[in-house]
Amino acid sequence: MQTLRQLSWFFKAHWKRYLIGIAFLFLIDVLMLWPPRLIGDTVDAIRNRTLTTADLTMTALTLLILGVLLYVMRFMWRYLLNGGALILERTLRERLFSHLTRMTPSFYHRKRSGDLMAVATNDIPAIEQTASTGVLTLVDSLFMTLLTLSVMLTAIDWKLTLAALIPMPFLAWSTAYYGRLLHERFYLAQEAFGEMNDHVQQSVSGVRVLRAFVQERADVEAYRRVSEKTLERNVSVSRIDALFEPTIAIIIGFSFLIGLGYGTYLVFTSAISLGDLVAFNLYLGLLIWPMFAFGWLVNVLQRGGASHKRLSELFVEEPDVQEQEHPVTAVASNTVEARQFTFAYPGTEKPALEQITFSLDEGETLGIVGRTGSGKSTLCRSLLHQYRMNEHSLFVGGVPIESLSLTALREKIGYVPQEHLLFSRSIAANVAFGNPDASEKEVLHALELAEMGSDLLQFREGVQTMVGEKGVTLSGGQKQRISIARALLMDADILILDDSLSAVDARTEESILRHLRQERTGKTTIITAHRLSAVQHAHLILVLDEGQIVERGTHEELMQQNGWYAEQFRRQQMEQDVAG
């Protein structure tokens, strides 16, 4: 019942739908009590030789009309209750999707993709079953049981009724015991399903690596172990599930045995009539559905409760980054500034960035270079406010990042990450992702700026070519350039290129950078790179090492310092000359 209470917010929002549906259920249960009484009276009339043709015709006509009414009302409650449950499923999916899009990277570091997929595909439908089948079985079994027992106690014989109910306490105990076991095992089965989903997702995403290292058989064997674990846990759920129906059938069988035996004795002693005994057994038959429904209810509620618990565990997660109560929604300037900025990833003690200070005016370009793991990408992600950070240490347009609304900040910044994610859509749709209203002419212009124009000639359908999942049909350089075109089409005030030219040759890189300087006059650009020629033109270059700035200046100033930057630049130039 706790699961139904947890869904009370939905039932309150759609109370009219559920009230009308429950009213139809109640009317059905009332009408279902009529046929046994009619049949019992008919049996008595036959035995007493008082049955006439008119009476038999009226009884048959009454049963026919009841059948039609029951058909219509059953359709109505299914439409109302099951339709309401589908609305709940849609609402939960929308809430889950919206919640996931608000979460910060640290959330996805803790949660596995397979578990999130399992919640969406398995747990939400289980909750939907609670709002449809659960409500039906609860209300219908409760009404039918109370109404039928009332008629049996008052219209037949109270002693016979109480005798037939002797086995029922065993039913209550067994369903409660099975329900507890079912809740525990179903929760574990859903966790195992999430693990299996996660394994499949990683294997499909990394299929090229698996083949490159000839690990197909090892991965298949690992999947077999995960799937066997999932199978075992689901079988353990099915074992408990399978006990409900036989247990209920045995208990109901004992009730019928007691009712038939004791009822026959009462007929012989003339305490009740033969028609009463027939009606009593028909009424007892009506109790079969509520008894089975009660076991089914426990099953559905326990599954729904376990799934609701998993869903609730996601909903209680809050993004690490929270907007202030009255955030700044507009910034006129494009300046970027860091003041003694220090940052450590959640769960770690050593700072990834330490005492970072720089100032970038409108229209200037910042270059960030350094060894792998020096903190270049971390600084870029910090500017997007993806993690909590010290207040008044990073500024955009003179406003502290934590004071800006997340929407305003991210609309102001165009970001091209190291990992270039393309969707399974056309090239045009991928480029226009951040600006869906862009015309095809604007898309083509952005692709030209990203030096993708000549590549489009290789595709039969041009910009309408489907790129496949994650851009599987494209080369690394093509994916990078499409990602750059997507950011350029946004025409953001601040553009961050996080090592986004690593997969293109030096000549293509030079052309892209020249286009950037021409198109982004008066706008701010931040470039991280391993190839130093990508930042050679920058107004300020920062050299990072273990999260700290070890060198700073323009290209000429850094060459005069004769430090890491100068040494690395000369080595790259020599390599380029040899390759040329």
UniProtKB/TrEMBL annotation:
Cross-referenced InterPro entries: AAA+_ATPase, ABC1_TM_dom, ABC1_TM_sf, ABC_transporter-like_ATP-bd, ABC_transporter-like_CS, P-loop_NTPase, Type_1_exporter
Domain of life: Bacteria
TM helices/strands, residue ranges: 18-36, 56-73, 135-156, 162-179, 248-268, 280-301
Record's keyword annotation contains ATP-binding: yes
Example GO molecular function: ATP binding
Bilayer topology term: Multi-pass membrane protein
The name this protein goes by in its record: ATP-binding cassette domain-containing protein
Organism: Brevibacillus choshinensis
Lineage: Bacteria, Bacillati, Bacillota, Bacilli, Bacillales
